[in-house]
Amino acid sequence: MHLLKRIPLALCVAGSVLVLAACQPNTLRPDQSAEVMPENGVFSYQLDNGMKILVQPDHRSPVVVSQVWYKVGGSYEYPGITGVSHALEHMMFKGTEKLEPGEFSEIIAANGGSENAFTGKDYTAYFQRIASDRLELCLKHEADRMRNLQLSEAEFKKEIEVIKEERRTRTDDNPTSLTYEQFNAAAFMNSAYQQPIIGWMDDLHNMQLSDLSEWYQTWYAPNNATLIVAGDVQPQQVFRWAEQYFGPLKPSQIEAPKPRHEVAQLGERRIDVKAPAKIPYLLMGDKVPVRNTAEAEWEVYALEVLAGVLDGGDSSRLSRSLVRQQEIAASAGAGYDPYARQQTLFLFDAAPRDGHSLGEVEQAIKAEIKKLQQQAPDNSELERVKAQVMAADVYEKDSVFYQAMQLGILETVGLGWQRKGEYLQKIQQVTAEQVQQVAQKYLRDDQLTVAMLQPQPIESSAVAPRATAGGRHGH
Amino acid sequence: MDIKRYWLAANLCVLGLLLNSAQATPQIQHWQTDSGARVYFVPVDDIPMVDVRIVFDAGSARDGFTPRKLAGTALMTNGLLAEGAAGKSAQQLAENFAAVGAVFSNGALKDMAWLSLRSLREDKYLQPALSNLQAILNQPDFPAQAFQRERERLKIAVKAKKQSPGTIASERFYQELYGDHPYASPSEGTEQSLTQLTRHDLQQFYQQYYVARNAVISVVGQLTRAQAEQLVDQLLSELPAGQAAAALPPVQPLAEAKTVQIDFPSAQSTVLMGQVGMARGDADYFALYLANHAFGGSGFGSRLMDEVREKRGLAYSTYSYFSPMAKAGPFQIGLQTRNDQVEQALQVVRQALHDYIAEGPGEDELQDSLKNITGGFPLRIDSNKKIVEYLSMIGFYQLPLDYLDTFVSRVNQQSRDQVHAALQRRLHEDKMLTIIVGGNQSQGDN
Question: Which of A164, B174, B261, B395 has the fewest CB atoms found within 10 Å of its own CB?
Fold first, then answer.
């Protein structure tokens, strides 16, 4: 039984960006495409304007997923305009020179498709899932809105209110999300990773249409985009359509964002978050390297295995020790994501059981860390983590969307999609001693940030009856 | 990650399955075991893996029929299965799955309780995973200490629900709508009912409901028919035939409208509005499915989304759905909006519902929905995971085996007049239940 909502670990990604139009000498040219051979099942191609195309055929069902990924997201933003990437994502559905607001969505729906978009720290992506014989429609309209978006003041005025409602639902009225947002802002001082992707409410109140149009002009260009198509398609046909629709788009001169490398942390940081809630909640995070920043590549994979030893399913250490043996936590977890532009956090979260404090749970997690620092994990533990990674590599073939998503993340954080093929092997090579070494090197109190949600009463802060309450009862 | 478009209705998978007759649908093989369990099987060769899903008519709707009628009995029984079985501890059972890369999960809803396993196909992985599942299913020990622990954890989950305005609203919605009916009771139970619960209650519940005649097993993966039969026989080897659960009582709709306001210190108010909807297999199912699709079931382009979000910017998410269950499940409309906009949002929703019932969908709207349903069918069955879930639904609710094959044509047979007539017959705007959970209208952002 997984009873408590977990922190949103999975998709806080980033990477050292190579956004200039130059590059990718190894990618084949259009005229060579007939000879293209797949690498790990992926066919790649590049347009003259710098746009990259990746195709992963999967003929199990007559469906396709099409995703356009831009190298821009929350971590590209500056104080005062936080949330602008996400706001622009919303406005990308509001019409172009050719289409009315909402018309792209209507076209996709009328063709049986579903569509959506998401914004991360290091990327913004748009996608459609649709019958494979309708793919051309998606490409045609994605190309259109890459360069021909019509940003209207009237639409923006309504949409920014929708975004504020989204923020209230996701963050302001959700005590664990609120704790995560404050924790993150405390853990990072000058890195852009301290900013919430959805933006601070004050920045949303003050956002202008001109902020969005500037952002669109700066980042939405073919040489800053990757098209990924996975499903029941022929790569050559996708490349031809890409030439036809995206090929004519002009590239932009794009400057990589300033790095804003996080200043060295000089000691433990702690914050309390007091909000109306019922369950106390603990978040802890240590600064760790990612694949882009690691001095030694193996450290990243050792950190992945470390996360698996601590929280890879019900048999892992945190569940065993904190939940089942000591019975002091209702839930306890750990997480790490190696794919980001910049240094990120190795996270722990937990909720104490009644009668136990956040402090006790924190000490218990630290005791588990210490054990791993003093003694390398057992071989059987390591083998279980590796078996789960090996099996997951097979299971993911059941979801074309997930496979496309992995390619997109690797591309937009600047690692290159080819890395996908090496992951399994690198994990299998990790030794127990390496897991111990990264635990010693990175899980240190001086690099730690701790946030505690201290629940405030819900009932006693209940508001006075509304002036209009009478109108609420009956019809 | 912030996802712009958040379609609650679609996520709930409550609206049924769609079929494009032009595409091959999974050919469902069906049989019954000697002990009376119903089996549904689709061989899929592409990926070397196997999915198994076992569903019992043992959801929380059965809580009220146990000797002590304690809410939470069904969920706790299901939750304890993997906490100790055949003498193995929770730790050993979890390690056994992890060692072969198998993924196990379980849970209980109002109608059904389920166990699910995903494993690699090779016997050196599959057989240990199956043996482990066999133990969990046939020989749970309900260890005393695990019982105490999980009960305490569930109490914390019950408490956690009280910090979420959305959950408070949803729970109250079911309570008010279903009154004395078993669907009114929260699956997680209450602090009080959980305190009274004993191991014995769970063992009794297990013995009565976790039996072959009350089970539906769905299997999808790289197996022959003979292999699938063997797998099922092995899994159920020690499960007694028992008896299928008795039918649940019928649901009485609300006699008059009711509005409930619950104060909560949040920036937004959660609004839920609805009434009793329909059961699986209802004669109006296809007409109402189509009617709801155009009203609030299809996200962008639906009337609700258009009126509430696109025209007025009042909410991020708004939706409507019918949730067909063994007995009449709810029809529900939902949204969240800033506290000072609740009145306006309610007015917009009521007007939209009124107009829709009065006039029915426009011919254009109907055609748009039909195109989306027909063209989108292949997406509904494009993975083993989705297929195994659909098999469970077809099996549990005893829908015809050609349910998928005929779905699109049956939706397409609905005329505008039929859809309009069904709407007028089944939706009653003057008898809606409305739940509002939120803060004072002047209570704004921090």
Answer: B261
- Closest-CA distance, A32 to chain B, in angstroms, reads 31
Interface residue of A314, A319, A379, A459 to substitute, partner B, most B CBs within 10 Å? A314
A89 is catalytic: yes
CB-CB under 8 Å, A118 with B3: yes
Q: ipTM score here?
A: 0.92
Distances (CA, A) of A128 to A105, A114, A399: 10, 6, 14
Between CA B154 and CA B76 the distance in angstroms is 8
Model pTM score = 0.91
Segment 290-309 of chain B within 8 Å of chain A by CB: 298-301, 309
Q: What share of chain B is helix, strand, coil (3-state, %, to 5)?
A: 45, 20, 35
B/e letters for A70-84, b = 16+ CB within 10 Å, e = fewer, are bbbbbbbbeeebbbb
Within 8 A of A168 by CB-CB distance, chain B residues are 266-268, 336, 338, 445
User: How many CA atoms does the CB half-sphere of B326 hold within 13 Å?
Assistant: 22
Q: Which residues of B touch A315 (CB under 8 A)?
A: 91, 94-95, 97-98
